[in-house]
Automatic annotation (TrEMBL), chains A, B, C, D:
It comes from Streptomyces yaizuensis. The keyword Oxidoreductase applies. Residues 159-304 form the GFO/IDH/MocA-like oxidoreductase domain. Keywords: Oxidoreductase. This is Gfo/Idh/MocA family oxidoreductase. The lineage of its organism: Bacteria, Bacillati, Actinomycetota, Actinomycetes, Kitasatosporales. InterPro entries: Gfo/Idh/MocA-like_OxRdtase_N, Gfo/Idh/MocA_oxidrdct_glycsds, GFO_IDH_MocA-like_dom, NAD(P)-bd_dom_sf. Residues 22-140 form the Gfo/Idh/MocA-like oxidoreductase N-terminal domain. Gene3D superfamilies: Dihydrodipicolinate Reductase, domain 2, NAD(P)-binding Rossmann-like Domain.
Length: 407, 407, 407, 407
């Protein structure tokens, strides 16, 4: 044999190709690009029970959505998300639209019998999130899966941290310390995009960054936050208006100023169900910090530390070792028996940010094929939303302690 | 000339020796050893207007205090601190006794016309601290100096950080983030020493560790905290009793358990006068962290970060540089033009913990010789005490926001 | 408009799709997977003048090559590399086969009018490399491009380092210090794969790892090595034979032992044309180091440091700053104006190892479209080969200094 | 009892004071200050069998030596080192003079029945070092101790590293990698002090910095170097002359230039007796590196890494752990069961550079009291000297491999 068409699988020597899973994605800005990379790559790297097909992408601007489809490899483009949901070749709806659209789209997609992946935060309000959870529960009974996109759970070092905690390597937890620090709003001349407007974004650093660290705290500990006390601040209260706001924060300044209606920073402390103390800080005003999602967790038997700016590393201190030879060790989380790593490169060859979306796609496809509950499901997203709402209520009450409803 | 007595300064070629300043120290445990090292070393390294003489040390146990005097180089030993204060050869009283004795000793020493250096925290209560401040103000009018021993201001990297902030290199401050993490109480079998008893220690991690970071936040920012919201926790509520408590936490377990009456950890957020947000955590339960006094300060024009476990280093980010070449730089604070460094070793030759006491001694001697106000004075200690009291009140009220009285 | 086929570009509102560039790849082990990821991704991220099409892949084992084609997205599979070269839909031949095949394939591909990308090291001998260079020079006159795959030049931090040096930010260079440390041969039970056999691999750590750091030293400095002195060592001289050697080092032990005929480690010092001193270490026996390609370069005006295990970071010291505020700064090389980063994610969102192949694909496609000389061209690969040969000769002569022929 | 003279030990409750050991020190520049601090402090921190007394200091300039005596606490000053040796109250001669005086002073002091501590490098030539060893051997038979001052063996982290290697935690050693990088000669305007003149300093970076790392390599491995291959370079061949050279490199430029007759940098590779490979770099031209004595040692079972700029830390990788949880751990070498630490502060409280001299003083006093061989003895210093001589011979022969005589 000299030549063969590799896409033909008719030969008796080939395993049959797995069934297709048609993906329909709504939104094509930053998250759309990242999700596309995940969907395109996942079956090249992992052995999967279903084969994702990039069926269609939806966006309001016809030219832009077609350009995005070509760029990212989607077979078709839609300008109405309802049309995308209605397509027979779409089995899973991936929601990368702004937060104020999440609930409506997700409920409609689930009602139409689609699986759903929804970007975080799940919604802009607890009420919306509750409606989404109810829809997800109904759909679940018919075998549909609804996952929320807390992609940082899929950093191998974070997943490995969860594994170590679940194995009891930290013992009873005492302290959790989370920050998510960025600096793209330090400049008072940064424009007033939709992310700075409450009606579109719901909140500021809190929903954008704080949602991630609240989810990670609950995921890593295996516990829920029971109450919080918060301070929030908007340091720059007016910013340049854009003539026409565009998705990625780009646009032409109009010459005027408009009010910033979300928080620049939120600082909150809380308690986990076990009594452990947890602290959180989300800000876009920490000069020099670009993507510093950091945590440290201290338990009776050990500690863990992580920094997203060095995402291939996990620091682990084993408190059961003799003091003379103990210390925080830097685990390079690139070994074949680390989470997700079997499929990738040899030890020491780093992964990047976008791999989290590939891993998320894998986990979701596995859950769909097996019919198991996805992690994190919409109820996890709802619980995060309840924490964020409690944080906002506490901040309005100048740090008054607000219990988090336990659903 | 072949031989000369180096201690004779009668020759016309020698500058006259500076006048003596007799030091009397009360207490001889950990802090006593560290202060002794500072007093012994300071005139060997710095050119000083006064020559400190280790005149006398006081402690209750006659054998122990004499042994301490011999070990640390004190000329005499006293078993009654009042006798020490009464000595003519003592011009400065250095208080290293437990916190519940600070007020009585300091007020008596100042009344007796002595200068005073008092270990931190200034006192166990705001009322005590106010009485001490009043005494210090009276004594100040007669040329006596009263300083509180927040020695970490004297880490060269910390002093350099203050200099950079004072020069405006950070611009308007947005965030201050302080932790002081230790782990010597992680083991539930650690004994119930005086440091775990409210009547002696006043508070737990809060007064022991939190006092340092509250002082540093106010020192570095040049601002005061205006209010706080706090959570506190005692994770291990009973610990082994000692048959006879001894100074250093050593002793023989008695077989029984007694109640821990102070906090293991305190977590609090607050606001500075300028509106900057500040977070604080003090704990002795952070497994693997030995002496992790860490801070990061973010301003409009730059940021600083520090970790006491790497005390010769300061991280500085200059936000006014082009993004492509900016980043946190690790300044090795061992250059001749860094604070205190002119007197020490060549660049790159590290200093240690105890040097802070040598530097403190220098600054105090300079203040006495010049008659200038010491930094930090008792009023700074009082202001820290007010913050600690507000933290305790807030923690009792489950994080209710407590304004800090501004004195 | 509600629905559109995104792959149709006939509408008047769309720019025409760029012309196709058919890629044919030979080899499908580790490098094949990495290159495939690069070819698949490059046009999704960068705006390119040519559109790479994964036309065909070649490998000897029919089942394996077809599986690889399906896995990695190649349209066709060949079992004879000559057949791949002969295909009309292949315009560029990407050589990922073992080093002993490079010369024959590359010469044939260039003679057939194809562009060539050849994995490093260029060849197993200088003579082979010279023949390849001659073929590349002939092909160049007919507009064909030949590039050697030193992919680490395409780490953004490395490319940024080159930019800083080229701008003169380091001044005259004094020292270059390169190590490439791995540890997968520490275990004496690791099997005897083709990489440990001189007839296939040419050399051991020297060619595998040393080739990268020699290339980087010459690339970053913009200078050539003029001579070297080397020590080499094989610490484990016999290893378990495999019943049947397979590409990736996997296979079934046969029960016997066979001789290791390449170096485990090579250590060499040399001089650059300018007189700067350079040191190199390549080893696969450095326990705990997984992929530690590290360098530090010291010049009269500044220094740079890098570690491939933290590939998103570059350390830079500017010696022209005042000593009190200078230090190595950690530049997070994820800003839009860093090399290659305009196309990727927001600041602080890390890239990984495989991105180097995407960047390599971009640079090669740009060179083909523009008809410009590729960097690094085969002559760069030949010069590295000359250094490796001099290193081997020096090691055989127990560190005797060997001048490197300057081509 | 109210008052007691602490220096009186006549009471029946006090242990008798240990006998005095009179110290006489020659030289009072940088090393003199550091040694003085060690002698003054050692009995305040450690329980010692002999009590060091700072009896006399010698230097040529009468005014300067008397000032140094007063500053550093020496009871008497001498302007002739022979007079110092002749003093009855001097039992130990501490040689901090330049290297060209070491041999004459040490031989005379040993002949006069004194113990000797000699700063490194032991001498400027192998012949001098051999004479010193012979004198030390004779004196040893009469109970006199001769130690060479490789003070970095006394960094607790380094001593702990030696302990781990001696316990077999690294297994068979494969690689040793040592650098000692400083940058105080980067500026071509730095003056021509005695340290840059062969007749006084013997060599440049090689003897000053290289001697330390050669000693540490042999100390840590417990093996000797058997041969070396070296390159050396003087990048700046002429520097400003000083009108009158002074000890510390200070002085007034004369306006002229003079030749630098020592190396700026030396780069050498070698083999240990076991076959392990070792690399060394000593330079004073590494911009941004202030005191970067760094090593990494890789063995079959683990690795160690250290940086003198972070001298309280030791990195340790245990290769026998499961790959998924292994990594270099940062041991904070401040625990009570680390070398020398029992006597110092609580965990996490850093030591500094000067502590190495206090530890050296302790170890020497213990050796004298016990009559045991000191480590490192003069024979260790001689062996280092032989390596340095082989390095210089190799560098003159353009990297020709020179076996090191094994004494």
């Amino acid at each position: 044999m000299d030549r063969t068409d590799a896409t033909e699988d008719s030969g008796s020597d080939s395993p049959p190709a797995p069934p297709a899973l048609g993906i329909g994605m709504i939104g094509y800005a930053f998250m759309g690009a990242a999700h596309s990379q995940g969907w395109r790559t996942v079956s090249r790297v992992f052995d999967l029970p279903l084969r994702p097909v990039l069926a269609a992408i939806a966006g309001r601007d016809p030219l832009a959505v077609r350009a995005a489809a070509r760029r990212h490899g989607w077979a078709a483009a839609e300008t109405d998300w309802r049309a995308l949901i209605a397509r027979d070749d779409v089995h899973l709806v991936d929601i990368c639209a702004p937060g104020d659209l999440h609930a409506e789209i997700a409920v409609a997609a689930l009602a139409a019998g689609k699986h759903v992946l929804c970007e975080k935060p799940l919604a802009n309000t607890v009420a919306e999130a509750e409606a989404m959870c109810a829809a997800a529960a109904r759909a679940r009974r018919e075998g549909r899966i609804a996952m929320v996109g807390f992609n940082y759970r899929r950093v191998p070092a974070v997943a490995h941290a969860r594994r170590l905690i679940a194995e009891g390597r930290l013992g009873a937890l005492r302290h959790l310390r989370f920050t998510y620090l960025q600096d793209w709003l330090v400049d008072p001349g940064a424009p007033l995009t939709w992310r700075l407007q409450r009606e579109h974004a719901g909140s500021g650093a809190l929903g954008d960054l704080g949602a991630h660290i609240v989810d990670l705290a609950q995921y890593l500990s295996g516990e829920r936050l029971t109450g919080v006390s918060a301070l929030a601040e908007t340091f720059v209260t007016e910013r340049p208006l854009l003539a026409a706001a565009t998705g990625g924060g780009r646009g032409i300044p109009s010459g005027g100023l408009g009010p910033v209606t979300v928080d620049d920073a939120a600082l909150f402390n809380g308690r986990l169900a076990s009594g452990a103390l947890a602290s959180f800080e989300a800000t876009r005003m920490a000069s020099g910090r670009k993507n510093a999602l950091r945590f440290e967790i201290n338990g009776e038997r050990g500690s863990l530390a992580f920094d997203l700016e060095r995402l291939n590393e996990l620091s682990f201190h084993d408190h059961t070792e003799p003091a003379a030879s103990s210390g925080f060790r830097r685990i390079l989380v690139t070994e074949a028996d680390h989470p997700y790593l079997q499929a990738w490169w040899p030890p020491g060859h780093a992964l990047g940010y976008e791999h989290t979306f590939t891993h998320q796609a894998r986990d979701l496809i596995e859950a769909i094929a097996r019919g198991t509950a996805p992690e994190p499901g919409f109820e996890d997203g709802l619980q995060v939303q309840r924490v964020l709402a409690a944080v906002e209520e506490s901040a309005r009450g100048n740090a008054v302690y607000i219990p988090v409803p336990q659903g």
